[in-house]
Amino acid sequence: MESWATFGGDLHLDLTAGRARGLGLRAALEEAVREASRSGRLPAGTRLPSSRALATDLGIARNTVAEAYAQLTAEGWLTARQGSGTVVADRGGAPAVAPPSTPPRVPAARYDLMPGRPDLSLFPRSAWLAAGRRALATAPHEAFGYTDPRGRIELRRALADYLARARGVRTDPERILVCAGYQQGLGLLCRALGERGARSVAVEEYGLPPQQEVITATGLRTVSVPLDAGGARTDLLGGLTAGAGTGAVVLTAAHQYPTGVPLRPARRAAAVAWARESGGFVIEDDYDGEFRYDRQPVGALQALDPERVVYAGTASKSLAPGLRLGWLALPAELVEPVVRQKELADGQSGVTDQLTLAELIVSGGFDRHVRRCRLHYRRRRDRLVAALAERAPEVEVTGIAAGLHAVLRLPAGSLSDAELLRHAGWSGLSLNTLSGCRTPSAGPAPAGTRSGLVIGYATPPEHTFPGALDALCTLARL
Q1: Which of 43, 119, 345, 378 has a Cα at 20 to 30 A from 289?
Q2: Are 202 and 248 in contact (CB under 8 A)?
Q3: What is the pLDDT of residues 238-295, one digit of tens each?
Q4: Domain contains 99
Q5: Is 101 among the domain residues?
Q6: Is the same domain home to 422 and 322?
């Protein structure tokens, strides 16, 4: 009874702490005994007081204690034997589980300049709510059941019309698959390609950081494609992929991420020619196709050959990433295998947001929202460029004709990317560097490569944007 005496003296405090966390009296008692058994405060074989004695000691109802003992016995924490009372069970030497260590808190950056993030304050809440009400009022009952894994037909029809009008995509609703954003879509494609015998996927030398992880997680490796002022060197694909079992090449053709250059027409043709000759596919990531400022929109590469090019788009930049809505316009040859992968992944995407987006597109609300965002982001970009021209004129700003980010190429002799990131953290800036976007399979950048920052200018709230520009200009002059 010595162990119980030690534990029992603190039991009132344990119950009080449990109640403070919102537990009921019985739940607090159960949790106190479990924790004492886990930690060794109540070793195996320790005999507990009778339910009557403990209830009297704690000043609570006997039934509460009896029910707690019964629950703990059922869970294996206690053992009740006729004539022997209730004792702490021997759990076979189960090791005590230490609480998970809490990583040190990193102070949140004051200024979020990470690329690829939209201004969430622009999300059209009123228009979205109105579209949702209209969509729900007219949706058939079967829409809320187990439906086509490709997505609701209402959204697929709306997307087919919108993509043809806005991006020149040639497809039809039967070949569109709705997914939970680009990363899921890329994973589905890679798994389908792997089942068809592919061993690798070609990717641009610089690209979206999570892309490599998504591809390699499916069991494929990556082949790096060099970049220059004309975009990816697709004219080299034949030699780069020879013998590699490359099933596809991923391209950000309209606005290369992160450099911002569009893929030259001859390189577009070379990518399609490679796909036709090799039997592979081009995966076109049109991640910010709606936002063009100083030039006419660059049409989708997919229009050159819908049977060899997969078009991938999302609502993450145009609306909000939290919606988890993306889409693939698939070649006929890939529809069945990719749909099968979608069925295995999650069966189908959420219906309510699909219906709402379809209604928003059909009603014209989506186009109005995009026009509003385009004007807002263009003004943000102009303020960024003007501030750097005035206060850090030696910095070259590129990739600004479209999208939500800019590349700042710093003069020779500037701090390294790692040093820039360290100084950015001290200044309260969250941003990325060119080296942070380099594809691991490309290896380190060649010696003499200039340092560069990849700056997203969409996210900071309006009242913090001047402060973000001040801190950025100071960093760029280091």
Answers
A1: 345
A2: yes
A3: 999 999 999 999 999 999 999 999 999 999 999 999 999 999 999 999 999 899 998 7
A4: no
A5: no
A6: no
Dist CA 304 CA 299 (whole Å): 10
- The structural domain count of the chain equals 3
Average pLDDT value for residue range 303-307:
97
Task: Tell whether 167 and 276 lie within a shared domain.
Answer: yes
Residue 37 pLDDT exceeds 90: no
For tokens 């195996």, name the residue. Answer: 44
CA 284, 289, 294, 297 torsion-angle sign? positive
* pLDDT confidence of residue 28: 83
Alpha-carbon distance 213 to 411, whole Å?
A: 32
Q: Identify the weakest region by mean pLDDT among 65-69, 84-88, 372-376.
A: 84-88
Q: Which residues pair with 432 in a beta bridge?
A: 454
What is the extent of the structural domain holding 36?
Answer: 2-88
Residue 100 inside a domain? The answer is no
